[in-house]
Every structure is written in C-alpha cells, then in structure tokens.
Amino acid sequence: MDRAVYGWIEDGAGLSTVKNTIAILVRVMQQAQRDGLIETNPARVTGRQHSYRTAEDELDNPRVLALRDWAALDGLADALVARSHGRYRGWGDVVRFAGCTAARIGEVSGVRIKDIDTTTWMWNLCRQTTTSPGGLVDKGTKGKRRRWVPIIPQVRPLVLHRIALAGPDPDPMTRLFTGPRGGRITTAILRDATHWDEVVAAQGYEFLLRHGLRHTGLTWMADAGVPVHVLRKIAGHGSLSTTQRYLHPELRLVTSASEALQVHLNPGWSPSGPQEGFGISSNR
Question: What average pLDDT does range 142-147 have in this prediction?
C-alpha cells in the first residue's frame, strides 16, 4: 500500500484521490477482520498524511536526495554487502542497478533476462504480470507505462555476471536479481538483510530511503544533459513538471520560460499535454 501511495503521489494524485481510491479496500478488509478471516487490516495505511507530506517534500526538490556520483553509489553498495550476512554480492548489485537506471527496487527485482538487450544495452521496463503457483499476482514494475532505460557501462559487467549465474542456456524468464535463496527482493528484505538504516547513517546518507535510489539516477541523467522530454520517458512520469524537478535550477528557469511562452501562444497547452475545453484540434 505504501508503494502504491507513493506511486500515485508521484503521478500527481491529490490526497483526497488517494484516500478515496483505497477506501473501499480498507472497508472490505475491515469486514474480513470482523469475520475473523484475518487478524489485521493490511489495507489500512497508518500515518498516510505524514507519508504524503514526506513524499511531497521529496518531489519538491528530489535533487537533494541524490548521491553525488558513481563512487558514492559504489561505496554504499559495498558497505551494504559487507554488513549483510554472508556478504551476498546480490544486495550490492541491486543497489547499483537501481541507482544507475533510476528504477525502484521493486522494478529491479522484477527484471528478467529477456528484458535486457545486451546488444544495445537497453532495459525494456514494462509491466510484467505473472501468476505464481500459489495464485498470487506478481507485477514486476507495478507501473502503467512501458519505457526503455539505458544501462551504463559501470553496471554492464554485473548484468553479465547475473546472467552467467543462471547457467549456460538460461531461461529468458529467469529473474536477473534475486536474494541469496533465490527469492524476490523487496525493499523490506533489502533493509533487513543489509541493515540499511545503520549503513546509510554511517555513510552520511541519513536522508536516503530505499526507493530514493530512483532520485539518484534521474538527477545524474538530468545533469548529463539528457533532454527533459527524454528523461520523462525514462522516468515514466505522467507530467513533464514532475520531471523538471530533476533539472539543475538554472536550466529549470530557462525551461519554465519556454513553457510560459507556449501557454501564452496556446492557452490550451499544459506540460501534461493539450487540455479539453479549449477547442484545440487533435491535429495541432
């Protein structure tokens, strides 16, 4: 529920929209709890307003939540591996891959061998829905938008290493990143297995949350000069204004000036696209 709420907030949904969206699920689970089918209500998100404000604060200036460079990300990954039981390398691989591709941990843990094109080094990040033997629906990206994400040279060796671990003729549906026992990696598992909170505090990154690795990748791409419309497609943002928060402040001012002129010339235009009610032709 927390991950879903953060995703809706990032897409620009208001607090009332979030509340109304999960209200019916909360009521259904509440009745199940009264009937003795479950002990607790899994849909009741405690402290939702606080979480909403926290997420909004992150989105107001996500650049301040980004790691400064590759050395910082690499050092953090090594520190997490060193703190984990058995020093499992996979924890560091997940962190490096998430930070460089601007993806969420849940998205990284859902990637399969077939989703990585090692010729062009592009990741086809799309919604992956499968049904497990237990009947549970597994949505690898929990997202709505198909997007292509570039894989930089720094993490290509670890991708090849993970593919090699699957054997000489791996099943293309095999997950690329798994835990030491072959299970799915979630943010909670990553936190507990690597003592995340202790490690990031010791590294001086008290601000860094597990889903915050996404801010790192998007900030790096923005500073590298990736055009904002391309960055939007990589991020999967619904609104261009969300993507613009990752731009350097000076560049953001120039972009805002361009938008202001566009709105002046065409009142029906917005960063999210043409708006209804202005008599705008679809051919324009």
Answer: 58
